[in-house]
Amino acid sequence: MNLPVPDGMDRRHFMRHMAAGATILPAMQFINHVKANAQTVRKNQKACILLWMSGGPPTIDIWDLKPGSKNGGEFQPVSTKGDMQISEHMSKTAGVMDELSIVRSMSTREADHGRGRYFMHTSYVPNPTVIHPTFGSVASHELASSRKDLEIPSFVSVGGSSMGPGYLGMSHAPFMVQSNGQIQNAGQSNETGRLGQRLAMLGEIESNFINSNRGEFPKAHKEVYQKAVNLMTSDQMRAFEVAQESDQVKQMYGVGGGGAGMGMGANRFGEGCLLARRLVESGVPFVEVDMGGWDLHNDVFNTLRDQRLPQLDTAMSALVADLKMRGLLEHTTIVWMGEFGRTPRINQNVGRDHWAASWSAVVGGGGLKGGQAIGSTDKDGIGIEGQSYVPGNIWASVAHALGIPLDTVHTSKRGRPMKLANGQPPIAELIG
Predict the structure, then answer these.
(1) Buried/exposed 25-42: b ≥16 CB within 10 Å, e otherwise
(2) Tens digits of per-residue pLDDT, 224-240?
(3) How many domains does the chain have?
């Protein structure tokens, strides 16, 4: 059965507000309306960047190669800094693997894209009676209130739609932007005169709507609209201006030219990773960066060699190195994963199909222990040997890194207690 997997807050509704505001303020007016005494956002606040591999990546060809096996494929392993082996086409990332750990024994029963995506984001399998929040919304809910200086959204989704906030409310829904930092549907014009009047009018209407006791939606609506106003008037908006980075930094992420597929805009994932760094540097606690194109039922090795892995390798290694250079890595947790892995067996189309029984995720930074392979699969990559892990273990480990108490319990709309990370413990090897 295909269960509804809503994106939480109606983002199109939010974007209509953004578009309305942006048509009133031309681009240059953002600077003129910056708050004069805005405090500098601290750079040591904890954050998480989720690198989401939409479609289900073949981790047997990336993080857990099986040379000599009938399932091994065409790639050879290379040694990493941190004494592991990964794909030869991830050579740049190999140089920063002392900061990252590979969890090689992920195992779930959700090999459907929608269900797997839901499970990996929320720690819960889809249920028709409750919509669970994605972990980005959990992080926003738990951390944003303590960041009084943060005027931009506390959960940003880059290049994709992520999942929704469920019972935590749409004020913790992902704010979706393109990889270049532009907000979709937010055009600009020169209509500046009636800005204050329009905002005051809308505020009065929405206050009256809230006072009419029509449930929680109007109040949440007003909160979201206020975030849109803050976006227009805060100097923190500059965090979205990826183009302002130096050519040297852009090139490091693969978006500054130099090489096939590496021109500005060509490596959207690299651009998104650079934006993610800028956002956490500004105090945003959770950023998700989407990299699609992993549903490789056909021609898996050519696609990986020529497209997916060069872009992933450049962007992921740059993100780790850049965060470390700026003193942000110890406060920023990085998670790399998709909705599942892909079959050890290579199909007749030289591709790999959906496979949830044994695959890998990568976690590091944020004070977690790096440079290790946690768990293992058998020689052909088919089964887990020893301890297996589910998404709740990943997110409990991230919660530990973010300082979110593991005994946190939220309440669903129907009054049911919902445990953080579905009550799963963190991975012991990560937290030390």
Answers:
(1) beeebbeeeeeeeeeebe
(2) 666 666 666 778 889 99
(3) 2
